[in-house]
Amino acid sequence: MGLVITVLLLAPLASLQAQDKPRHALRPLGGVHYGLVEKLSVSAGLLLNTGPSGGGDRGIIVSVEPGLVGLKAGLGLAAISPSGGGVVRLAAFHTWSDRGRIASHQSYLGGEIRLTARFLTGGVGYFRRLRGTTPGDGHFFSASLGLLY
User: Which of 37, 78, 93, 132 could bridge to 87 as Cys pair (CB 3.0-4.6 Å)?
Assistant: First the structure.
């Protein structure tokens, strides 16, 4: 009887310990976005899950986002659950078309925050030019809406 009581008391502790253990797994992410500067783009990324196994994934994210105006690549932190999530990342953006608000062949570095509720995503960012000489394109604010990550 004492053994049964001990097992019943320790079982929840073992369950809690298993939930707190980080799991290192890659999770693919993707989405479609429309941004003020980027115009239409498709994103693809990998999340290296380093968070606890219960309730969602969190960790380091690496992503690329080719679009009509240019290519964005990012590295950051993400937390994702079944109901939504968020990403904070450092991103590089290079333009190859002047269809947007900034000229082609410009390179930028900046930060972005994206929040997702269910499958709708909204994001904001700020970028400063690293390369290029077009007047008036030294920096820009970005805002986007999309589906999925």
Answer: 78
Contact 100, 123 (CB under 8 A): no
Token pair belonging to 55: 């309730």
Positions of E strands within 50-106: 57-66, 70-81, 84-95
Place of tokens 């290079």: 94
H/E stretch holding 19 reads: helix 2-20
Q: Write out pLDDT tens, residues 47-106.
A: 998 876 567 888 999 999 999 999 999 999 999 888 889 999 999 999 998 777 788 899
The whole-angstrom separation of Cα 110 and Cα 64 is: 14
Q: How far apart are the first and last CA of the chain?
A: 52
Strand partners, 72: 65, 93
Q: Hey, what are 72's tokens? A: 């964005």
147/101 Cα distance (integer angstroms) = 23
Q: Are 123 and 34 in contact (CB under 8 A)?
A: no
Mean pLDDT, range 127-139, rounded to an integer: 88
